[in-house]
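Follow-up to my earlier ticket, as requested here are the two runs.
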Amino acid sequence: MTVAITRPVSASVSRCELTHQARVAIDLDRARRQHAGLERAMESLGLTIVRAAAADELPDAVFVEDIAVVVEEIAVLTRPGADSRRGETEGVAAVLAEYRPVARMTEPATLDGGDVLRVGRTLYVGQSSRTNAAGIEQLRGFVGPFGYRVEPTSVSGCLHLKSAATVIADGLLLVNPRWIAANALDGMERIDVDPLEPAAANALLAGNAVLFPAHYPRTRKRLEDRGIRVVRVECDELAKAEGAVTCCSILLKM
């Protein structure tokens, strides 16, 4: 069984943190409908949805992925790179404690979960504006004793490592090569995003299918041409808050 921890879209989402995008109006009702559609898509693939309590005063609370890095043995609560997001941890911690022992990062570490890409027993960690060297080192200290390797990875031009690369099948990545170092993630087979869809590398592998944004049809065709089962989800409103399909859940294999 796989549990997907989610959190409702906050009423204050229009005040979300933005790093690489211009601020535009967000339709709250539409964002909430899209989030509900994403949850339904996950349930259709056999995932069990567990919701953290709503936090309308925290604009980015829906993007729970950034608040924890979870492996089979432990859940590591991050210290998000944006000051405004640090209040999100307690609501997520309360849910995670039901499933895993919980550890916490401390100052001066900063790390967003969206910068952590797991491939087997290796955690690639993006060196981004939200994740610093102390965060990477603290993560290594928490997961290293369980046999995980932590590898810093350079990213540029995007918010998180998972903006540039995600796992879409065993041994296969979806990548925007312009946003990661040329030698990053060596040894992995890749599909590049369509150049006209630079933000299309963020996809969510769930069971035997990939949840993928409906607004990137060119890259979707590349996946389907490779035999990948794609489940399209509407998430362009959430994308205005610099979010994507991986951002809205923490997946726990039970």
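Run two:
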Amino acid sequence: MIGIFYGTRPEYIKIAPLVKELKDKGVEHTLFQVQQHGTLLEGCDYDFIIPIFESGSRLNSITISILLYPLPQDLDHVLVQGDTTTAMAVALNAFNNQIPVIHLEAGMRTYDNMNPYPEETNRRIISSVASIHLCASEREKDNLEKEGHHGIIEVTGNPSIDNLVGIKTSYGNKVVVTMHRRENHNSLEEWFKSIDGIAASSDYEFILPLHPNPNVQRYKDLFEHVKVVDPIPHSEMLDLLANSIAVISDSGGVSEECSYLNKICLVCRSVTERGQSAYEIVCATPDALVKTWKGLKLENGSYLSREGSTCPYGDGNAAEKIATILKNVIFS
């Protein structure tokens, strides 16, 4: 029995294709919903509400709650995705109970513990206890091998790309904006003012589905030229990305999706664990974002010259590859 744990919306979006494939292949598994982001899915097998401890830190509350959670005795393996605090704490809990850990989206690195924070440290902790590492690309496999990690290390692609297969794309008049990363919270005012300035001097319609985090919401009134909307379902977000002219984001998942959809993504981060695609352009500061935008010249066709680049994060068949590996390794 594989226990699959997820605690945030992006985690569930990325494991959903794998869950379907495991069902199709008859691989026994159980879904555990940890409510780091509240209720995510109706009909999961276990729903774990995180109590808030008086620790002064929500990250500590999440970690403590999960470490105190008694894992079911019938679990042969535990699978976690990515680099959230939920994934790290579940992996550590499983390790302490001598349950082998499967890490999906393994090996991503910036080698800067504060960028992204706390994700960089979380994923390195998971790598240290995992016995099966499922990597999005060869670069992540190389990272793990250089660090001396053992166990099974396989390049499978990222199941998030599986969600994009068959989506039709066009180059419309919209620029999609997303900003939420914790390491950007102290500079969000500067980022948002720069983005609003870009929008003011552009003929494109800028749309920002605003993240619900209070540290992000507090700046929503800064915008005069960007359309701010409530968070939208993932399917609608994919349609928006697929028909945009460009994207401005600090999200790793969004930059992966843009790489597959052939959309330029201006990545608002000082460093990224991805950055392997011709469509990802890192802008370390708000000033760099403004300068990069001015140099894009989207109207003259230079944008389309990037078409045909291979997406480094998968071909849309990751879930099938992963399910086959797990079935062969665990249940053969």
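The only thing I checked on run two: The chain has a mean pLDDT of 91. Let me know what else you need.
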